[in-house]
């Protein structure tokens, strides 16, 4: 691309930039993982709401909530994470911002849930780290129509 003195860098258009198909694939994977992570959180919430004795409660944990409270937290935030993942497919900056925020919330929630289901919590945290990386590094390659 030739740059002349009349063309300002502030007029740089997204359509003139080359898009990487691999980067688009990574972002689509991140959106899909967000939807799956949200559904996983919602399932955790349903299990906690329907059967309080399924999860083992540790006696001396800093964040001591009732399992029913955790169930509602997981259910509501799981739906929000899944919706943010769906919005990510539009490629809008606001969708990427919401996706990063919701992935961070999901990580914090999974960390707090760790005493109840440690392996599952670590899995969700790892997925959230990948989502944040993919959205921040490659998220701009999805073009919103």
From TrEMBL:
Keywords for the protein's UniProt record, in alphabetical order: Membrane, Transmembrane, Transmembrane helix
Occurrences of domain DUF7144 (ranges): 27-140
Signal sequence, start to end: none
Superkingdom classification of source: Bacteria
InterPro entries: DUF7144
Bilayer-spanning residue ranges: 23-50, 70-89, 94-113, 119-137
Protein name: DUF7144 domain-containing protein
Native organism: Arthrobacter pityocampae
């Amino acid at each position: 691309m030739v740059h002349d003195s009349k063309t300002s860098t502030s007029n740089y258009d997204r359509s003139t930039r080359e898009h990487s198909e691999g980067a688009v694939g990574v972002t689509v994977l991140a959106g899909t993982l967000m939807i799956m992570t949200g559904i996983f959180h919602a399932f955790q919430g349903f299990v906690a709401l329907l059967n309080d004795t399924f999860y083992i409660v540790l006696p001396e944990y800093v964040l001591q909530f009732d399992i029913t409270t955790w169930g509602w937290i997981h259910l509501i935030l799981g739906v929000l994470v899944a919706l943010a993942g769906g919005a990510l497919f539009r490629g809008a900056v606001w969708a990427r911002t919401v996706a990063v925020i919701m992935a961070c919330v999901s990580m914090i929630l999974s960390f707090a849930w760790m005493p109840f289901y440690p392996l599952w919590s670590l899995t969700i945290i790892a997925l959230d780290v990948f989502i944040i990386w993919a959205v921040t590094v490659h998220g701009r390659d999805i073009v919103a129509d």
